[in-house]
Amino acid sequence: MKVVFGYFLAVLATYSLGALFVSQGNIAEVVGMGFEITMSHRIDAVIHDLTHMYDLYLPIVAVGMLIGLSVAALIINYVIDLRLIGYVSAGFVALVAIHVLIKATLGLSGIAPTREIVGLLMQGLAGAAGGYVFHYVTLQHQPRSA
Fold first, then answer.
1. What share of the chain is helix, strand, coil (3-state, %, to 5)?
2. Fewest CB within a 10 Å sphere: which of 99, 121, 129, 141?
């Protein structure tokens, strides 16, 4: 049960951070065109992306994280000392991979900021955070002996 809960929290964390990075990446382009953006605009953009990207972006994140975390779990069974780095790396690679695969197969970038390397790396960072959440939630805490 801890693994399922950890997975859902990891997906939620990855989706939330990913949407935040998407909205701020888009705003950075608008600022680059010379428009003035207030903090209120930034907050509105984040709320809009969080509440409107779930129908397409959330399932893609969920599948990517499912594959990435599952592969990491298989590897970690043999090299348990790399648990933290394994799950964090799996989340990073999963998010970068979904955007690269979409671009390679469909010929388009579904998320505009991922057209630039910084935007792609920020999506990877969102995945890494999700991997960390999964690691932390599923960690077997050892009781302290007296």
1. 80, 0, 20
2. 141
